[in-house]
Queue: 3 jobs
Job 1
Amino acid sequence: MTHPTDIRRDHWAEHLRNALDLAAAGVPALPLSRGKRPFGNCTACTGNACGGRPHMKAAGPCQCPKPCHGWAAATTDPAVLTSLEWAAMWREALAVAYHPGGAGLTVVDLDTADAVTWARRTLPATRTVASTRGEHWIYRGTMGSSNAVRPGVDIKSTMAYARYLGPGTGTMTTLPDAVRALAVKEPSPARPAPHAVTAPTGFGSGECRHRTPAYLERGIHMAEQRIIEARSAVHATVYRTFLAVLSAHGGCGCLTDAHIARLFAAAQAKGESPRHCTDAWANARAALGV
């Protein structure tokens, strides 16, 4: 006779194996608690004491090792997934989730039979996974996440997590314009465009010792690559990169709107919102006094 403890052990071990398989495939994973939710903030991060992460108001280099910040805690690092800090979470985990945007993917979450019928009539075929009440359609490509884009349809890509329900069936295809169009909203005339760069430039007036095209271009390119190649702790990486760029060029006015736009674009491609980019940039400037 199988003891209930053995069943729980088998379940969390299976969840961890699935997470490691996802990580090996380049898909950031994390455990889910009851209600299909990420584990709550740890003591060190409660009340934003850590300095902030993407879903919080402030920006900051949080280095918490526990999966306490939702989608941003998802990782492809097996050392983190199997660490002692995560062990207690896996023992309590009821499911596994992943960050689609971190793997260059978008999940169209179809939560009703009517939504599935609509998708089969409207969207290009792609890899599909059966869910509790419908299906997940997985496309190659990223976009902003959005809930209730139409009845029974959510989009999960950047800054979101999706429950892992198995490998699915079918060939994954490129994210179609029909899905991107679902999240498009008319801009408010009272607000700036959503991706406008609002960070001020020209904030330095000291003598520039390195205003050479090659030096500056190399620095911006390296900063972009550092952000793009981040597999976990994306928000912290963005903040540290902004800090490094400002340390080198923030005191002499080398940076232009075009340079900052490139850094913001790299961060937004990894799931950061324009507001989080602006906050991280402002916090980095404040930390350096520039």
Job 2
Amino acid sequence: MAQSNRRTSRRAIYTTLRQMVLTLELPPGAALSENELAASLGVSRTPVREGLILLAQEGLVQVFPQIGSFVSRVDPAQVADAQFLREAVELASLEDLPAELDEAVVGELRGNLEQQRREDLGLEEFFALDEAFHQGLMRLSGHGNAWTTVAAAKGHLDRARRLGLYENVSPAAFAAQHDEIFDAVVGGDVPLARTAMRTHLRAVFNDIERIRAHSPELFAANSETVPVRRSVVVWE
């Protein structure tokens, strides 16, 4: 039982730390202190250390011997790889849409889109609705379970997407793109749905270039770069 509780704690701490990285609560380039993280989460250093190791395996954290651990800066190459995977899966799922769509799922998607248009909607709320919308489209094609694999592979992409959301301030433009995709799906126009989906998913690349122009410190320039731990993180 003790071993099971330890595994549960380790997984829970890893999940919490991962979410803190993906939501930018721990921003790109931030120095990570095991002691401070353990204190803030109310746990010992061991599950924090194990969580950071798992995040390092995903490339979301970098560990430098004798220097410390840091949140990885956003790597455009890894964003592109994750986006390629996501686009391939989502466009393929549109090709498998049945002639008769599941009305229950269609209804859920309509409700989701209505929520996306709320004027008081927070950006993290929109992000959650965005995820549910795309997963819902895959459920329509019978591939909803594949979303778990997609979600696990797009950590770097999700950080870039959030940077884009915060840069745009309002998610209205993204919600409008969702409307276009949904209308094409419900209308049975798969080619239009695929074109709209491709344009929607690739918008992240424009966001990256725009943000990198004024905030280059958020992005990785060289995977071999070693940071210097000071009161403020400096990447040389």
Job 3
Amino acid sequence: MTTNQKTTGAPGLNIGRLLLEGRAFFALIAIIATFSVLSPNYFSASNFLIMSSHVAIFGLLAVGMLLVILNGGIDLSVGSTLGLSGVVAGFLMQGVEIPAMGVILYPPVWAVVVLTLALGAFVGAVNGVLIAFFRVPAFVATLGTLYVARGVALLMTNGLTYNNLGGAESFGNTGFDWLGFNRIAGVPIGVIVLALVAIAAGVMLARSAFGRWLYASGGNARAAELSGVPTRYVQVMVYVLSGVCAAVAGLVLSSQLTSAGPTAGTTYELTAIAAVVIGGAALTGGRGNVRGTMLGAFVIGFLSDGLVIIGVSAYWQTVFTGAVIVLAVLLNSLQYGGVGRRS
């Protein structure tokens, strides 16, 4: 009888596990179906591409956040790093005045991009060194960096916004808006950038030694260290990569808006964390993948844009987003055994 009961119960358990593990995918399908019924303008290729360009910002932050969470950490500074990166890019595009020489230098766009990515890597390296070598808790270290980066952005702009970042032919710095407005085969450049970053991160996690080290150190840092994994190096690198992803997101967002403000990216760190959690990653580290994180980012993006399209108040949008995050954390607890295993 015991054997028969197990056999009978197995299909139900398998279906339940399938629904639990594929919740982000099923949630995305449900969101698309619901808003397609509520609004005739929702289900169209042009609208999906527009929404995907919005998702690109969250998705880029989420890829970096996934690497940090896989390591068992958290990065609260990505939103501020995004804002600071955009401000630095705007500052460079406006021209760098050198009073001693009486000249204003206008760096080409490629130099602006390289310097901005270097800034993101530097912010991430500061986080990583504080956490890996000085043993500062990740929450505290990245919270401090959040305020420092936001403060620097405000100081650089005096609270104002850099506008008209298209550049000028005479200064040789045109092309910055290419990231935000151009398309390849009808697909926005920002979406293509997200796809390339996601593919690179997925290959790194699945095929490289660093990916194996990351999963090992996130699952059990002490055991990984005893096995020869350079855990401190891994810890620093995930924050560096998170900072670079935030810088890329800052470049894409500034290009889309053709402006850069010091408050850009406010609370985006929470959206990135939400995308990772909705995608099925464990906040305790060691479990998660890029595919799930991308689905989580699209769930949040398509839900937010859908609520806007049907005219839901911005206050209710916050409520719905918060409810989705709480539900995702609850399902993660069920999936990874955080609930109901004490007996």
